[in-house]
Write a structure and sequence with these properties.
7 helices
């Protein structure tokens, strides 16, 4: 196994250890503080790609390296990290902390109830042709069904997977440019 892939697995483990530490210490668990956990994930992804690429670059012959090869090597570590962390995200929200998504769903239910109890907002909803013939309960069920799909562990995993894949691709291009132009002074890009 290449060193960059080992480093990606290591940083996925570091990320999950941090996530579990946050969970057991009950820090960064509120809706407004979750963004710090996302930043922790981005930091671990970037460090895994950066350190893995540096380790690969130290072992290769510079005369034989190409920018496309560097992008491929950098992206390889990022993809391994992304797949492992996405699986761990599903595990976390499905088995370890299913209460988080349940709390988010309860908040959404309160907001929908509040919206449906307001006559002004209910009148606005009734202007829509698809909503004008529905009862209050049918509108509520329709809105909550959408929220249940959003707050499921599989959708959280899918969104995380897509976001990290995009971030890995962009990071691999940026890291290749930075390493080739600045760090290793190769002007062949």
């Amino acid at each position: 196994m290449r060193i960059s892939l080992k480093i990606a697995v290591l940083f996925a483990g570091i990320w999950f250890a941090g996530k579990m530490s946050f969970f057991y210490a009950q820090i960064l668990q509120n809706e407004s503080e979750v963004k710090f956990q996302v930043m922790w994930n981005i930091l671990c992804l970037l460090l895994a790609m950066t350190i893995g690429t540096l380790a690969e670059k130290r072992q290769e012959v510079r005369a034989e390296s190409s920018a496309l090869g560097d992008i491929k090597n950098t992206l390889g570590g990022g993809l391994v990290y992304t797949i492992i962390v996405s699986g761990l995200i599903y595990l976390y929200y499905a088995k370890i902390n299913p209460g988080y998504n349940e709390r988010q769903l309860a908040i959404a239910e309160q907001q929908v109830n509040k919206m449906l109890d307001d006559p002004k907002q209910m009148k606005e909803l009734r202007k829509s042709p698809e909503m004008e013939s529905l009862t209050r309960e049918e509108i509520f069920d329709k809105a909550i069904a959408n929220q249940k799909a959003i707050f499921s562990p599989s959708s959280t995993m899918t969104i995380s997977l897509l976001g990290m894949l995009l971030l890995s691709t962009i990071n691999s291009i940026i890291l290749t440019v930075v390493f080739r132009r600045i760090l290793f002074k190769q002007r062949t890009l």
